[in-house]
Amino acid sequence: MSSNNDSQKRFDELLCLVVEEQATTEQITELLDIAEHDAELKHKLKAQLEIDFLLSQVEQTEQKANVFVDAVLQASASESQIKDFEKQVIGAIQAEADAAKQQALRQEQQNQTPIDNKVVYLPWAISGFSMAACVLLSVLFFFYGGRPITVAPMAQVPVVEVEDNGVAVVVNTVANKRDYRIGQTISPGKLKIEQGFMELEFYNGAQLKIAGPAELEVISAQRVKLLSGKVMTDVPHVAIGFTIDTPNSEVVDLGTAIGVSVDENGQSQVHVFDGLIEAVDKDGNKQQIAKGEALNIDAPKMSEWQQTKAKAGQFSEFSEIADLTVFAIDQKHQRWLEMRDLIIQEPSLVAYYDFEKDSSKPRILKNVANTSEEFNGAIVGAKWAAGPWPGKSSLDFKRSSDRVRVDIDGRFDEFTLAAWVKIDSLDRTFSALLLTDGYRPGDMHWQLGQFGQSRHGLIVLGLAATLEQKGAYKGRNYNYAPFFSVADSGTWYHLATSVSQNSKEVKTYINGELVKRQPLLYFSDFWRIEKANIANWNSKKNANPLRNLNGSMAEMMIFSRALGDDEVAQIALKD
């Protein structure tokens, strides 16, 4: 299993290099060798090449075709039985493209109208390149090692269906020391709240409010076990049957609003404020309790239980949730405002987009750093929306054209990028955060990745070093995985990454926590941004691969130095 996982991981790394046009001949050979032993990886490679490497790369298509074809030919050079066939295929395709080009030129001369020959014979070039790569890959796959290999039809490749293991979602959390986030999925298991409040909505429709300190075990979307503390429920008709286990009973909610408490000695109380519940003892005996009544359950047998009147005062802390929520929201927004005012004074702050709408220029994303108004961004397509907390705004990116266009001058020895991001879906190979135009030596590409049928995404920082290594400019992707799954859709994250050539490190942060530290493998005379897109990419080709972000962004900071761990935690508003 470990070997398979390692092969899959290496395959994804190599495929990423191919998509980013950074793969060497040796790396392409290694990629083909891994794919040769796995039918699913063969299909994945073929589909990825067609989408990202072939059809999307319009400009200099023939040049890219020659690079890839040469690499495949080198990989299969020892296979004399197919070498002539490969040359014939390539020759036939090249002849077809040349014929189309000549025909277009003759037409241009006859009509005396200027024609961009890249456009005229482009379909032939794309078709030729696509056919060449696919045929050569097929030949290599079928005859690799001098023997036929049976490839399963596409329909027979098992489809990996993404599973959601959650049973509830966090809809509110107030004054909670633990790192629970609104929108976070809760899976079966222990749940401990030391202080504050948390509100959950279960997949079956039941709502559960928890006051800390409390500890419970989430069993399913229909059942929890309260070990200690206090909870209150709101169970609509569709969720009737939601059950709370206590040390000595089962409390079945028949469509009610109730309060349940368990003290340190394991003694529990059930107060019915609306509707009806059914209490079940250890022997299976049942007793119904209606609105206005309560039970003291301090023994396993129902005969020892005491029925009393419900007392709302015993759950008075829950009445504070609304006020505390408003206070916490106001407090967080105030903390952000204070942080923003402080960070604007930071000398290394190159650009700071706070994503606050300027009513006088609503299609301009203002750079609030003390640098240059020329760094202001132009909003294209994206719509203003709510941010990660009330009072904070964001831009929503949905369509393939949505983006913020920026031009940020400067060259840096080191840098930090930070952003508040909400991801609705990772529905393409790469989803842009900040991508420089094209991908030149010195450029940086910060984006999210989703390869093939992987259950999780990843954070990708691509760096194209300017310094030559053995005669070639070196590019490298620094990845962090796993990050984000389908169950996390709609969740806000604070993401940051830093690069330091002094400490020779690349660091990745999520919500103010350092999650990965990697060695910087290739050094550069400088790193730069210049013309770039937030949440999209301009490949500087006639057609652009789809890399638009499907989600929202509420902040983007760019520093000319690598921030420390404490500084990243500060801008992430980490408690």
From TrEMBL:
Residues 197-277 form the FecR protein domain. Keywords: Membrane, Transmembrane, Transmembrane helix. The chain crosses the membrane at residues 119-144. It comes from the Bacteria. One of its GO terms (molecular function) is sigma factor antagonist activity. Pfam families: FecR, Laminin_G_3. The keyword Cytoplasm does not apply. This is FecR protein domain-containing protein.
